[in-house]
Design brief:
D-Maltodextrin-Binding Protein, domain 2, 245 residues, six-stranded mixed beta sheet, five-stranded mixed beta sheet, globular, 13 strands, Fructose-1,6-Bisphosphatase, Chain A, domain 1, alpha+beta
Length: 245
Amino acid sequence: MTGNRLDLLSSILEEAGAEALAFFNRLGARKVDTKAPDDFVSDADRAVEVTLRRLLERDFPGCDVLGEEYGGEVGARYWAVDPIDGTSNFLSGLPFWAISLGLIEDGQPVLGGVIAPVMGMMAVGGAGDLREAGLSLDSRPAASPCIGMGRNTRWPLAERHATEALIVEAGLAPRILGSCALALMLVATGRLAGYIEPRVGGMWDCAGGLALCRAAGVPFRYRAHPDGTVDVAAGGVLGLAPIGW
């Protein structure tokens, strides 16, 4: 049953990825609004979320959806959807953005997938089954020296700098990619040693990547706040930072 669900999820991500890539290849035509300082939304974000909702209703009928752009009321089982995670990168013509889908059941990410269309990378996973597409297993390192870090205005600068210092003191290299979903996919597939970001914007940013980490057997922690933001940490960073959650 899990295998069939992963096939369906792969198909959804590929279709949405093709649509998003077409928007990316015509950046000059994009219509952009500002939701908050350093937080942008484009017509591409909205259109891709509509497509994802339609495809999820087709292949996983009756399941609630929580999306970054159109919200949603959720119960014990729902999809967390981010149509373009890394919109600032997207609008800048940078390849570091991704589409993320994660199925949450009783508060836990159990099935998910992330696609980075420009980079030609995709992974889907659930129930201990992780599948990679566009990623060569021969290119997976024995051990990555890099730790991914997030950046948002809700994470105090002093705390972020202190975390970065801990990473450097451990002999590792911090990297800020600008997409939580992309970074978590890279953790799950062994390209990053870990990832940390307190106060990520919402479950849509991290649910897909956390499901991939679970499928890959990568340890992770997350904590949702009443305002919907989420603290996220995965992989080797768990032994470095005084997370306390």
